[in-house]
Every structure is written in C-alpha cells, then in structure tokens.
C-alpha cells in the first residue's frame, strides 16, 4: 500500500509540474542572478538608464515545444530595489499585433506581449502573473496550480510602459514589493523565488490564431504550458553589480 501511495503521489506531481518545486527537490536550472539597482529608474519604456547599459541582458529564449525553431530576438532585464522588482523586455517583431489599452484588460491576451510570473515555490501558493502587450495593454491576475485563475485579482501599484519603433518594441514595468510580499516574494539580498519570463508572438492577428510561445525555461513538454512548475526558473536576488 505504501508503494502504491508513493507512485500515485509521483504521478500527481508530474501531472502538475511540481516534481522539481522547492521543498520537494532542489531548485531547477536555469538560475538568474537578479542584481540590486540603487539608482533611479523611470518606468517609461526607453531603457536608457545606466543599469541597462551596464548589465548583460538575458537573451537565451526558446520556442516552447519546438526545440529546433529559433525564436525572434528577445532580450530581458530584471533588477530589484527595496520598493519593487523591475523587469524590461526588448523584442524584435516584424508583424506587430497590438492595440492601445482598453477597459477590458482581457484583450491583452490576444496581442503580442511579454509576461512575468513569480512564485514562492510552494505547491499550494498563489502566484502573480503580469502580461504586458506591445502598446501598453496589461493583464494581471493570480493563479494556482493547476490553471486556477483569479482574474479579479490585481497587482496594486503596478507601473508599466511600452514603446514601439520600427520592427521592435520595448516593455518596462515595476512590480511593487508591498504587493508581491503577501504572496511570499521578498526582495532582499540573498532571497530567492521562482520566476518565469515569457512572450507570446502573434504572426497574423487572425481570429483564433495560436501565437508562437517563447520562454526562458525550455520545459520538456509537447504542448506549451507556462502554468506548470517546470516553466519557472529560479531568481536569486544579489547585491549591486
């Protein structure tokens, strides 16, 4: 009976992508060292502060579920300061599918966008999700495994800006420390959390089009799914570079 229960637990953990969660096993690769930045950052989508010039961006992105396909150029930066977590993306996009922000934030889910998910690593915990489209539309919500979404939840104090020029767009945001702390995410040197960095790239904008899903962590799944633990890497908050 004990063996059967262990096997059943293993199947459940694999089903929900929790077999590599902190507390159940060691943190999975890859790991991103997130530096502290003490200077001023204007959330305006320009990415012209010193922190962007001095810090090498994360550029190792993958097309989810398609190991042989090269994604469009995607770069991301993540910094922390005591008042919030700053994330920025620079994305090449020859066929932009995006609109100005509207009252219905769900419209962002059908646009070219970038995403950041944070998670404290406990299987039972809710995790905040922020999806930011190329022209400034934002969809924020919380989720629990597996795909239990709370669309009424909002990240209080979230700042976000986007900019488009030619065949490229930039998105910059700050997630307030006070808003993510209740979800188990503490911004302090030596702390860590699980993090996901994603992108949805539409090619035509036609109804029911499935975008190309782009991810930092290339989870071994046949069908792209960012709402599993295997799609999260580890963020380690370190001191100033």
Please give a structural write-up.
The protein has 241 residues and is mainly beta. It has one domain: Immunoglobulin-like, CATH 2.60.40. Helix content is 10%, strand content 34%. It contains three helices and 13 strands; from the N terminus they run αβαβββββββββαβββ. Strands 1, 2, 5, 6, 7, 8, 11, 12 and 13 form a nine-stranded mixed sheet that branches. Strands 3-4-10-9 form a four-stranded antiparallel sheet. β5 and β6 form a beta hairpin. The radius of gyration is 18 Å and the shape is globular. The protein starts with a helix and ends with a strand. The N terminus is likely disordered.
Describe the secondary structure blueprint for this structure.
Blueprint: H1 2-15, E1 31-34, H2 50-54, E2 62-63, E3 74-81, E4 84-92, E5 113-119, E6 127-133, E7 138-144, E8 148-150, E9 159-165, E10 168-176, H3 177-180, E11 192-201, E12 212-215, E13 233-237
Parallel strand pairs: 1-13
Antiparallel strand pairs: 2-12, 3-4, 4-10, 5-6, 5-11, 6-7, 7-8, 9-10, 11-12, 11-13
């Amino acid at each position: 009976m004990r063996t059967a229960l262990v096997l059943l637990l293993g199947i459940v953990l694999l089903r929900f992508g929790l077999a590599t969660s902190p507390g159940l096993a060691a943190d999975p690769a890859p790991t991103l060292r997130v530096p502290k930045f003490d200077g001023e950052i204007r959330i305006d989508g320009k990415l012209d502060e010193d922190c962007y010039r001095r810090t090498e961006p994360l550029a190792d992105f993958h097309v989810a579920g398609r190991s042989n396909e090269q994604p469009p150029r995607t770069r991301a930066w993540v910094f922390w300061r005591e008042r919030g977590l700053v994330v920025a993306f620079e994305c090449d996009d020859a066929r932009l599918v995006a609109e100005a922000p509207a009252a219905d934030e769900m419209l962002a889910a059908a646009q070219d966008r970038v995403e950041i998910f944070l998670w404290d690593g406990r299987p039972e915990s809710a995790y905040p999700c922020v999806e930011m489209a190329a022209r400034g539309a934002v969809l924020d919500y919380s989720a629990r495994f597996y795909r239990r979404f709370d669309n009424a939840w909002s990240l209080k104090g979230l700042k976000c800006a986007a900019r488009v020029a030619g065949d490229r767009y930039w998105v910059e945001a700050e997630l307030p420390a006070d808003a993510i702390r209740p979800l188990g995410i503490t911004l302090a040197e030596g702390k860590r959390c699980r993090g996901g960095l994603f992108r949805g790239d539409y090619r035509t904008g036609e109804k029911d089009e499935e975008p190309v899903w782009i991810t930092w962590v290339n989870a071994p799944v046949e069908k792209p799914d960012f709402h599993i633990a295997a799609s999260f890497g580890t963020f380690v908050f370190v001191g100033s570079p």
